[in-house]
Write a structure and sequence with these properties.
single chain; about 400 residues; mainly alpha; Leucine-rich Repeat Variant; elongated
Length: about 400
């Protein structure tokens, strides 16, 4: 049935059109009207300078929030589509900052009114910005300037991108205590080792007064917190943390002692040498002992010679000539070669009952390569003896080593 209805100067003909226009009138603004409002703002976004574009973004945000408050989903959708479309095209940092600031206002308003779909769409827009090669660095800097709880959450998601590590670090540090606390809170939950290292480095870059708060009452914290703090101190290579790490090395659970030894190794300061020697000598756990030796091989001096020698003799006795054996032997060659030679000669020349070399080919070959680095009459004598060794790998390594010494 055809009929004519007049409402707000609009002429409506036909039942379907009547219902459509009634819905628009209930929302208080028609499609043509919203287009008229948006047109000059879109023109500014396309042709204006950065100040005009920022002003247009703020106007669009105010418009969107007014539609949220008055529960008008249709024009709200139109406004947010414009914002989402043009933020992807923007290149200027100040305007990106305006977009991020205003988008967060829209999210907060939409959350209050229960507009879940709008919240999800805008959060996706943030994620897309952080995933965009062209925009992510600008977006990260802008999020750091905003510095709100939501901006921090968005920044934390960028930690998984190695390329933006420095930008995220700069942005988070600019937020001060809020950024530090956010990182501290998520660190225990992160399992990805690369991301843990990034967080540790960023935490270490914050002012020392914040870091000290984090480390306060360390002895009272649980083993997970102690392990995490040891890891952070190691990644940061912060010498201020050495006394804390020494304490954890001496008193913590095994997993904490291991992480503390690793951290001290990364820092590489000889202040830790005595504690590492002590724990190696007195503590029973083989895993802890192994990490203490690993650290001593990096930072140890002549003081560590006896500990390293004890380690080598123990491994020789048990036949566990594994990862650290050759580096430990190298440590002795540098610091006390006279103590290294009995072990070297034993491995290179000791035979089985059947007159075959007693020790594995790869270990003997590695030792030949090791002594070839140190030019001396003693080493030349050893290499000459090995020219006729039954193992071809050892013979070849000895021959190459002798030539190197002759050419030096």
């Amino acid at each position: 049935m055809e009929r004519v209805t007049r409402e707000k100067h609009l002429v409506i003909t036909g039942e379907k059109k009547l219902k459509f226009m009634e819905r628009e009138l209930e929302e208080g603004i028609g499609a043509s009207e919203i287009e008229n409002v948006l047109r000059p703002l879109i023109e500014k976004l396309e042709k204006g300078d950065e100040n005009e574009r920022s002003s247009a973004v703020r106007a669009l945000s105010a418009l969107a929030i007014s539609f949220i408050d008055s529960n008008k989903p249709s024009p709200l959708q139109q406004v947010t589509e414009v914002i989402k479309s043009y933020v992807r095209k923007e290149e200027h940092p100040a305007v990106i900052f305006a977009y991020i600031e205003e988008l967060e206002k829209i999210i907060n308003s939409a959350k209050e009114k229960g507009h879940t779909l709008i919240v999800e769409e805008i959060q996706k827009t943030f994620r897309d910005l952080l995933d965009s090669d062209a925009k992510k660095k600008l977006a990260i800097r802008a999020l750091g300037k905003v510095g709100t709880e939501f901006a921090l959450r968005m920044l934390l998601t960028a930690l998984w991108d190695e390329e933006t590590e420095e930008d995220v670090k700069e942005a988070l540090i600019s937020t001060g205590r809020e950024g530090f606390n956010a990182l501290k809170e998520i660190f225990p939950e992160v399992e990805n080792m690369a991301v843990r290292r990034r967080i540790a480095k960023i935490l270490a870059a914050f002012p020392s007064e914040l870091r000290r708060e984090f480390y306060d009452n360390l002895e009272e914290k649980n083993w997970k917190a102690q392990r995490d703090i040891a890891f952070i101190l190691g990644e940061s290579k912060d010498p201020e943390g050495i006394p804390l790490l020494i304490n954890l090395l001496k008193t913590g659970q095994d997993i904490v002692r291991i992480e503390s030894a690793r951290a001290l190794s990364k820092i590489g300061d000889t202040q830790a040498e005595d504690a590492l020697i002590e724990v190696y000598a007195e503590y029973d756990s083989q895993d802890v002992k192994e990490e203490c030796i690993r650290a001593l091989l990096k930072l140890g001096t002549e003081k560590s010679v006896q500990s390293v020698l004890n380690y080598l003799e123990e491994k020789l006795k048990t036949g566990e000539l594994k990862e650290l054996f050759i580096p430990a032997l190298n440590f002795l060659m540098k610091n006390a070669p006279d103590k290294a030679y009995p072990i070297i000669e034993k491995i290179l020349f000791e035979k089985t009952f059947l007159k075959k070399p007693k020790y594995p080919s790869h270990i003997r070959t590695e030792i030949v390569r090791l002594i070839s680095r140190y030019k001396s009459d003693k080493n030349k004598e050893i290499l000459n003896k090995l020219i006729k060794d039954p193992d071809s790998n050892v013979r070849l390594a000895a021959s190459v080593g002798l030539k190197r010494m002759l050419n030096e």
